[in-house]
Design goal:
This protein is α/β, with parallel strands linked by helices and 352 residues long. It has 11 helices and 8 strands. The strands form 3 sheets. Strands 2-1-3-4 form a 4-stranded parallel β-sheet, sandwiched between helices. The protein has a two-stranded parallel sheet with strand order 5-6.
Length: 352
C-alpha cells in the first residue's frame, strides 16, 4: 500500500502537539512495598502484555519493536506494554487487525514513531482509543522539519521523510527521555522509578554510542559507504560519518527498474564499495544481483526493526539489534566490530 502524507488541519495539529505534552489521567500503581530499586531484571518481559484498562498500572500501546523495547526499559514492570506491529513485518505497509482495536481501546496512551510511518494505525487509534488517551509521536518530538532526511526510498516529492530515527543512538536516547516524561506525567507515583530506569538505560545507550564511534574509526575511510535494500540507515549515517550511496527499495516498496539497477551497479563499481547490505526482513534477489555484477560482497544480515533471537531471548532488545548490526557491518567493511562490541550488555536493565 502506498504511504500517504499525514495531513491535518491547523486545529488538529494543535491538538496533536498538545497531546505530546499531556496524558490521560489514570490511577497510578502504588510502588511495590519492599522492592529493591537496585535490583535489575533477570528475564525479559517483552512487549506482548494484555492491556486490560485497569487502574493498577499504565496500559501502553506501541508500534515497532525497537520502540517497544525502549518503552519496556523505561516502564519496566510497572506498565503493561503491547507492541502492535509484529516482528519481521514491514511497518510501512502494516495494516492493524480488529484485535488491535481492542488493544487500543484499553490503552492509556499510544506511543508511535510518527513522521508518517504508521498512518493506518493512527486511523484505527482515532476510531478506537478513549478521547482522553493521547497519541505520542516520538520522531516529531525529537527533530524539527529542517532536520528531516529524504532519499531514494523516501523522496521529498512524496512528502514523507525517512522515519528511521531510532537507528541513530542519540535519537533513541531522546526517545527514552520522552517516554520517561510521558510515563511520569501519567503516573506520578512511579516517576522516580521511571527516572531511575532512564538513567540506567541512558548509560547503556551512551556506552553503545561510544563503541559505535570507536568501531567506525577502525573502518578505512574509503569503505564508509552504504548501499542497502531498505533505506533505514540515513540518520545513522549522518550521525556516524558514513555516506549512503543508495537504497534498492523504491518509494512504493517495489523493486527498482532495470535502469536503476544498472545505475547502481555502475555506482558500486565506480566507488569501489566492498559490501552491499541486505535485510533479513526484506529479502532481495535484486541486491544479490547488484553485488554479483559489481564485484561487491552481499551481506544479508542487517535489521532495523526486528531484534535478534526469539521473544524470550535476552538479546531480543533494541540494544541487541544495534550491537548485532554493528558487528556485521563494521567487520564486513574492514573494521573491528567483533572485539569492540563483545562485552556490551544488551539485556533489559529496568529495576524490578
Amino acid at each position: 500500500m502506498s504511504r500517504r502524507c499525514f495531513v491535518v488541519s491547523v486545529a488538529l495539529a494543535v491538538n496533536v502537539a498538545v497531546s505530546l505534552l499531556s496524558v490521560s489521567p489514570v490511577l497510578a500503581q502504588t510502588p511495590v512495598a519492599g522492592a529493591d530499586p537496585g535490583a535489575r531484571s533477570t528475564s525479559p518481559l517483552g512487549w506482548h502484555d494484555q492491556l486490560d484498562g485497569g487502574d493498577d498500572m499504565l496500559d501502553v500501546a506501541t508500534t515497532v519493536a525497537p520502540i517497544s523495547s525502549i518503552a519496556r526499559n523505561i516502564g519496566g514492570d510497572r506498565i503493561r506494554l503491547h507492541g502492535l506491529v509484529p516482528d519481521a513485518t514491514n511497518s510501512h505497509t502494516f495494516e492493524p487487525s480488529p484485535s488491535d482495536a481492542r488493544v487500543l481501546a484499553a490503552a492509556d496512551m499510544l506511543i508511535a514513531n510518527g513522521l508518517h510511518l504508521e498512518q493506518p494505525t493512527f486511523d484505527l487509534a482515532a476510531a478506537s482509543m478513549r478521547p482522553d488517551a493521547p497519541i505520542h509521536l516520538l520522531a516529531d518530538a525529537t527533530i524539527s522539519e529542517d532536520e528531516w532526511l529524504f532519499d531514494f526510498s523516501f523522496p521529498e516529492s512524496a512528502g514523507d521523510p525517512n522515519p528511521h530515527l531510532w537507528m541513530s543512538v542519540p535519537y533513541a536516547r531522546r526517545y527514552a527521555e520522552l517516554m520517561r516524561d510521558w510515563f511520569s506525567d501519567a503516573d506520578p507515583a512511579n516517576a522516580a522509578y521511571f527516572a531511575a530506569n532512564f538513567e540506567t538505560y541512558a548509560a547503556r545507550l551512551d556506552a553503545l554510542d561510544t563503541r559505535i564511534r570507536a568501531a567506525v574509526a577502525t573502518v578505512p575511510p574509503e569503505n564508509r559507504k552504504l548501499l542497502t535494500y531498505h533505506d533505514s540507515w540515513a540518520y545513522w549515517a549522518r550521525e556516524y560519518g558514513f555516506e549512503v550511496i543508495g537504497a534498492i527499495q523504491a518509494s512504493d516498496f517495489s523493486d527498482p527498474s532495470p535502469r536503476d539497477v544498472a545505475r547502481l551497479i555502475d555506482q558500486v563499481r565506480a566507488e569501489a564499495v566492498p559490501e552491499v547490505f541486505g535485510s533479513e526482513v526484506f529479502p532481495s534477489p535484486v541486491l544479490e544481483q547488484i553485488a554479483r555484477e559489481s564485484g561487491a560482497t552481499f551481506v544479508d544480515a542487517l535489521r532495523d526493526d526486528e531484534p535478534p533471537g526469539d521473544a524470550s531471548s535476552a538479546e531480543h532488545t533494541y540494544l541487541g539489534m544495534l550491537r548485532n548490526d554493528m558487528v556485521v557491518m563494521i567487520d564486513a567493511l574492514g573494521g573491528d566490530g567483533s572485539a569492540i562490541f563483545t562485552d556490551l550488555p544488551v539485556a533489559d536493565g529496568y529495576a524490578r
